[in-house]
Amino acid sequence: MFSDKRKTRILSPVLSGAAMALVWGGLADSALAQGGGKKVDTTPPAAVSDLRVIVSTHNSIIFGWTATGDDRNLGTASAYDIRYSIAPITEANFVSATPVPCSAPMPRAVGYLDRVTVGGSSNTTYYLALKVADEVPNWSALSNVVSATTLPPPAPAVWDIQIVDASDVSALWASFDFTSSGNPGTAYQEYGESRLRFAEWDGACWQIEDVFQGYAPGISFAYDRVSDIPTMSYYYGGLRFAEKVGSSWDIALVDGRYGSGNQDYTSLAYDGAGNPAISYSGTTKIGKNSFVYVLKLARWTGSAWATEIVDSGANARSNDLAFDLAGNPAIAYSASIVNNQDTLKLVRWDPSSSSWSLAFSETGPTNFGWDVKVAFDPTTGYPAMLHRGADTARFVRWNGSQWETEDLETTAVWNVLGCDLWYDTDGTAWAAWKADYELKDELKVRRRDPLSGLWDPPEVVDSEFLIYSTFSLKRAPSSTLAVAYGVGVGVQGAITSYSLRYATRSAP
After folding, report:
1. Which residues on neighbouring strands pair with residue 82, listed in sequence order?
2. How far apart are CA 503 and CA 473, in angstroms?
3. What sign does the CA torsion over 131, 132, 137, 140 have?
4. Which tens digit of pLDDT belongs to each residue from 434-474?
5. Judging by beta carbons within 10 Å of its beta carbon (0-12, 13-18, 19+), is residue 105 exposed, middle or buried?
């Protein structure tokens, strides 16, 4: 589970020299070789003397210290043994304190700041101390001992729910965005009467209109970043792009070759120059009457739509497009079903080679990677994804050196359906998904603290007999976090009414 280096970090210095030599697997030199004629290293690292608290949150504390060396303050040490307790730590009880294995860093060069995050309960005092080892290992004396108290638990957030469209509509594919002034608008498919609809808040009420008559799955909605014009992509006899011009909608056929349509996603995003781009599941002809599914990207050149095949071996019915901080596109998608398994992939455009490169791939059971969303941390530029894992909401994040995965759904559910992911400007991540229980659905949201990397407990936005799995989560310029979604109200399998809802979060 852990690498050899990670394992060494949690070893206790109370082990004998011979036993430690076996565990370190040859990292030690002649000091462990029973007299091989070489000089024995008996000089330990200097003890850390400036261990200190950097920041406390309601569920974690970040501690920091200045790295010492391999021999006193020369060279670079090999490992830390970091331990915490709710009682004061001394040399005598250090080995009985709790090790911090998962987030313990490898020692940096002398003089650099090392840090570690200790997660725990709210309003609790934690003590921390550490020792430093060289490659033999020779262990330093105990560091200074510091303590800090986590903050009280935050007041529970409140989700204020509005009914956007109460005309008994089954609102599928709800997708929304904010204007530059912070007013929300949402596009959705009214399934019962097969209408693609658009609703926009004018400051006093929701103004609702029909875009066109017909079943249009895969809706993705966004405001033009330059003009604030509402735009959307969807499938209807091909990939289409609609934008509101004056009081009417201008609808263009972007690509007449598309996937199965009923469950396929499109993803609309704007690049740094204000031009729209759409990722989608398309088809390409391989014979006189034969077609295969492919992942495609359409980009507006300023005068026309240009399309390209991104992955010729993927059906990509779930896909999501985002632009990184340099303005290059990235697409996350569920590639294909082979032997009852799906593969989640992330591809990124490499401007140096003018080609697409595979950044991530993970295979799981059927529907693994479905409902995927991709976003970039604005503080680091690193990508992250949220998708339907094996009956959980699975968070995947690049930390600068490797990919990390976390399962966010903590209760037993029938299934997890639908996902969305949002980053605040300070690096706070927000994950949303639908948890499918036997007699109800719950729309859930979790917050990831950018300092500690820990997730707050899930917040339940809404709970109804049916919540559609195609919803949208975003934050407004006014700092309002919101989600748009469709519901069906009913009991024991009988739905009595449908509506489109819009919920905003307020934290007292």
Report:
1. 130
2. 10
3. negative
4. 998 878 899 999 999 998 888 999 999 999 989 999 999 99
5. middle
Enter the tokens of residue 46: 């200097």
460 near 444, Cβ under 8 Å?
A: yes
> For 299, what's the count of Cα atoms within 13 Å in the CB-facing half-sphere?
16
Say if residues 30 and 39 touch (Cβ distance below 8 Å): yes
Count Cα neighbours of 243 within 13 Å in the Cβ-side half-sphere: 14
Q: Which residue has the tokens 């950018």?
A: 450
| C-alpha 25: how far from chain center | 37
Diameter of the chain by CA atoms?
Answer: 89
What's the token pair of residue 468?
């559609």
Taking the C-alpha atoms of residue 101 and residue 5, their distance in angstroms, rounded to an integer, is: 11
Q: Three-class SS of residue 6?
A: helix
Could you give the 3-state DSSP secondary structure of residue 255?
strand
Q: Could you tell me the pLDDT band of residue 295, with boundaries at 50, 70 and 90?
A: very high
Residue with tokens 């709790």: 98
Q: Are 377 and 427 in contact (CB under 8 A)?
A: yes
Residue 366 contacts residue 342 (beta carbons within 8 Å)? yes
What span, in angstroms and rounded, lies between the C-alpha atoms of 499 and 326?
39
In which region does residue 482 sit, left (phi positive, over 0), alpha (psi from -120 to 50) or beta (all else)?
beta
- Do 440 and 414 form a contact (C-beta atoms < 8 A)? no
Q: Could you read off the pLDDT of 136-151 as tens digits, one per residue?
A: 999 999 999 999 999 8
The residue count for the chain: 508
Three-class DSSP category at 312: coil
pLDDT digits (tens, 9 = 90+) for 10-49: 344 433 333 333 233 333 333 434 445 567 889 999 999 9
Give the strand order in the sheet containing 329-338: 319-323, 329-338, 341-350, 355-365
DSSP output for 190-248: ETTTTEEEEEEE-SSSEEEEEEEES---S-EEEE-TTT--EEEEEESSSEEEEEEETTE
Instruction: Enumerate the H helices of 220-373 as residue ranges.
Output: none
The C-alpha atoms of residue 278 and residue 261 are separated, in whole angstroms, by: 15
- Integer Cα distance of 181 and 267 in angstroms: 23
Q: What is the 3-state secondary structure (H, E, C) of 130-184?
A: EEEECCCCCECCCCCCEEEECCCCCCCCEEEEEEEECCCCCEEEEEEEECCCCCE
Measure the CA dihedral 202/204/205/210, to 10°: -20
Q: Please give the structure tokens belonging to residue 197.
A: 């609809």
For 436-460, b/e burial (b = at least 16 CB within 10 A) is beeeebbbbbbbbbebbbebbebbe
Nearest CA among 44, 69, 58, 68 for reference residue 144: 68
Structure tokens at 409: 């759904």
Cross-strand bridge partners of residue 402: none
